Amino acid sequence: MSITLNSGFKMPAIGLGVWRMEKDEIRDLILGSIKIGYRHFDCAADYQNEAEVGEALAEAVRTGLVKREELFITTKLWNSDHGHVIEACKDSLKKLQLDYLDLYLIHFPVATKHTGVGTTASALDDEGVLEIDTTITLETTWRAMEELVSMGLVRSIGISNYDIFLTRDCLAYSKVKPAVNQIETHPYFQRDSLVKFCQKHGICVTAHTPLGGAVANTEWFGSVSCLEDPVLKGLAEKYKRTVAQVVLRWGIQRNTVVIPKSSKVKRLEENFQVFDFSLADEDMALIKSIDQGQRTNQPAKFWGINLFA
């Protein structure tokens, strides 16, 4: 199952996110997931594991496990490289061992102090607050993203963590429209207005943290996991599925792309088994009723400033 982007290319409706994936686990997880059926992999320069992902993908293609044209590879421009878009993209391509990217995203709508292409340090000032570069506009960054398309380095370009206002602005100044807006969205943080705005204007929404981050985000950010919600547990019993499968199916039925992450093969298999059932309208409505407006991924913990305030 896939969604056709406004660029004309097809994006698989489920992918594997590689954030917080340990480098020594990546080869087996990537190869294992391809055997399961995954073709969509969501990467980022900031995850500091593009080289390891690239090795695994190259091995998969070299051994005939999959063809390059069957894969959909996303990576992202880090905040400190807004003034160095082309160099940063080429650096990611080299690490991923690819000739082109299927999708390249602006990771966050903020330019920060440049720390060197290939590095993703977040420069902080003496008070521990993110050093934001106020000389680079998002429009300037987008113009460079469009150039990547002209150069053939990237098939589709998009944005990430943009709200309605910034998305509207991007639509206004773009010559190549953003194909995707990747945002945090899950049953406890549904963001219906943003999702509907994007979809109305032909922008596909990719749900990062589609399961609410589960234990990892509880440990990092002190957030509450939706996977423990009694409503979702009840639906899992009704459909004889795991709670995660119900949540991912909900995301797909909202016409969003979901990119769950797991380092357990059993979970990888379960997460992919969401195409042989569907949630009834009343159950979609029931899930809508449990929205808490709760962001679980909050980089302010590291940056000393809440960019979403």
From TrEMBL:
Residues that, per the record, bind substrate: H107
Keywords for this protein: NADP, Oxidoreductase
Domain (NADP-dependent oxidoreductase) ranges: 14-291
Sites marked Lowers pKa of active site Tyr: K76
GO cellular component: cytosol
Pfam families (UniProt xref): Aldo_ket_red
Active site: residue positions: Y47
InterPro entries (UniProt xref): AKR (IPR020471), AKR2A1 (IPR044485), Aldo/ket_reductase_CS (IPR018170), NAD(P)_OxRdtase_dom_sf (IPR036812), NADP_OxRdtase_dom (IPR023210)
GO molecular function, one term: aldose-6-phosphate reductase (NADPH) activity
Family the entry assigns: Belongs to the aldo/keto reductase family.
Name of protein: NADP-dependent oxidoreductase domain-containing protein
Organism classification: Eukaryota, Viridiplantae, Streptophyta, Embryophyta, Tracheophyta
